[in-house]
Here is the input.
Amino acid sequence: MSKSDLQVEYFTESYEQARTKFLASASNSDAKIYNYEHPKYYTPDNEKLSIDVAVYGPDGADNACLILSGTHGPEGFTGSAAQIALMKSGLLSEYQNDIRVVLVHAVNPYGFAHISRTTENNVDLNRNFVDFSTTLPANSRYRELHDYLCPQEWHEGSAEKIINQSNQWIFRNSFTEWFDALNGGQYEFKDGLYYGGQEREWSNLTLEKIAVEHLGGVRKLGFIDWHTGLGEPGEPFFLCFNEQDDKLWQRCSDWWGKTEIEEAAKNFHDGKRPTYTGLVFQGVQKFIAPTEMAGAVIEFGTEPLMDMFTHHCIDRWIRFGEQSDDEELRNTFRSRFKDASCPPDVAWREGVITHALNIQTQLLEGVQAW
Here is the structure.
């Protein structure tokens, strides 16, 4: 398949294009379609922002699949393509009498449309699913890093300076502590990185509504949240957040392979998975309790970790930094971030679609047999 053919078939270059293609694919495959429009925010072209949902299968199904895209803004270009490929493949018709399949497109539509990892409030949605009625998780390590990770000015040497200072901190402590300090989320600095917020985001509330409306009564749920950034370029990287070695963890291993599930942590420095808080995965578990839920955040590798981290720093600077009103510079940075989140390389995209279809098929087969 040529680059242009692949582009036309699955991938898109804007949130609006992705939404249009998702809805058309859902309609053409006889899905029930639901739209949850944002009440306040719009695309850069003043078009509607919406979380769109395509539902397949019987209302009374005991078993179901939930597949999400766009939790982290521009990573949605890849997740959307995976969902569209599944709908266009015809695979869903083979399972429509046995299980329900719920595809949620653009969980964070603001970030998807504006090419930002975070929501309209600079909230990392994948850290927002915590209990805000209690004391929020503390992250004293992030407090040590905030000032140098979040400069007010951005110039040619800013990225190198941040990486050098990070490496110095890592040398004094450890890579695992640095990675945990960032990826664990923080709830103190509203203008900072990986900010989990002070209240539930619109996307959080809307995802609960979707879960209640379309997964109510389901007894067993298989879950995928598509992401990009971690892992080897173009290869799937599984982050299973079921309790390690319990029966649901084992079920994921049965679906996708023991090596893929159990060995993922070894790809991190020190062989330890980061301590995440407030994940979408954890939120959905609460929304559908006592339903059994097995699944994973599944990444596709793009650029080296430190390069992706730099994109996150620039994304934050565009919102809060000085001279960030330079429209040409902002657009240049956003274009680079988009390509880092969903590389335009045709071989990368072909490989990702092949993997995504296989992974989604394994999920469908596993949930049907559960």
